[in-house]
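Researcher: Structure prediction, please.
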Amino acid sequence: MEKIYKYFSFFVLALLAVLTVYLLALPPFPDISALTFSEELTGSLSVENPDNERESRFFASGINDKYTGLRSWGITRGKNGELPRADPGAPELLERYNSIYLADPSKKIIYLTFDEGYENGYTSKILDILYENKINAIFFITGPYLEKEDELIQRMLDEGHAVGNHTVNHKSLPLLDEKEIEDEVVGLDRRFYQKYGRNMVFLRPPKGEYSEKTLEITSKLGYINVFWSFAYDDWMVDRQRGWEYAFKIVTENLHNGEIMLLHAVSRDNCEALNSIIEYARSAGYEFGDVFELEKLARGEG
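Model: Predicted structure follows.
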């Protein structure tokens, strides 16, 4: 019996040694933050053909009129300053739940928003540019960003920006039950309050995915869902095309009441931002105080 135990011990040790070598030989896991954001708008956007018809199953009316049905935010861009067109039924649905994608269409005012799923080294420069141009923005952050980027977040607050809620783990809200939605949204807000003594007001649903149920739940919790009237595929860090490309696509799509979504992980955005601001102002646009969006969404502005 003693020999059996002895051989068994050798076998276990050998097995553990093989397993250790195997694990050490495995490549490291990919950056989960970059991976999470690799398909940020889930196919809602076609830069090559912005007039491309999207699948009707994602529309906010008609075939997809279920209370819990997943909707993917999408717009058709306007041309020459014309307003973009949202999916059929979407503006009415957002208005019903104090949500917003476009500000006052009668005013040449643009509101800047940045999604901050993870830090890619450009936020400090973006903040410099906004400070120099006396513009504030909403920075939508996730749980990992909240835990890792104290200095940048404090600077956002000190310099008059709004820090918005992009959920703890960047999960698609319509795929979660009510408790999970609250954990993702309120969980981030509570931690933010613990660190900075403030609550979040603005919420950007991850991937632009929402349902009437998620709008109602988050609205009852006091949040303003902020979508956008312009975005492009700038979140793909391995597909940056130069600051001139960013400048061109952004300035060609300026329009009244614009809520502009830019991703702060983009080198192109960072390098083009000051030129975009200068061009917009030369074309007669102003950059609005993002805190006005709460009143507009609640029908108070």
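Model: The radius of gyration is 22 Å.
Researcher: Thanks, that helps.
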